[in-house]
Amino acid sequence: MTEEPRKAVRASDADREAVARQLAAAAGEGRISTGELRTRLAQVYESHTYGDLERLVEDLPEIGLSRARTVPEHTIPETLHLTAALHDVHRRGRWAVPPRIRASAGRGSVHLDFTEAVIEHDEVVVDARPNWRNVEIIVPEGYRVSTEEAVPGAGDVHDLTSAEPRRDAPRIHIVSRPGLGEIVVRHPRPGRRWSVRTLAARRRARRTDR
């Protein structure tokens, strides 16, 4: 098949997932920024043909879908480092999740939304570090959540999940170091979304009423 007709061939879900893994690996190596990864992943899942996908990885070492399709699972970085030094950092929508995430909240908060995330392992370890601000983790109903190793500091650890966990669901294992900020784990809610700031405001209101 010549190059041009090949680019017009319709891509499969497996093709899109392979390119998503390649982009995640590139971000883990520092080849593309967090913002670029988020933008390209959004485009990956809107792509229809090989040509659409190849354009998203043509500036990376493994160029083109033909090679991206053979990228093994272990090319997803073992640890994703997210640092909100000055501004909030978000991971949401469709994104490839590595086995371990280190989320460090500086002057900004870190928000991890697993609602539409692609998780291919039984357990994801979230090393939450609410140094100054907060780490918020959103999980779908049915996910298993473990906060036993999340050590509270000046701020608290809030596990607001309530749904009965499914045996076949991924386990989000949260570990932490004490900090000034808080860790909040919750389910996505329709309509109004309660943020960490909202929880803090409610807490302050209760203290005032006492």
From TrEMBL:
It comes from the Bacteria. InterPro entries: DUF1707_SHOCT-like. Residues 9-61 form the DUF1707 domain. This is DUF1707 domain-containing protein.
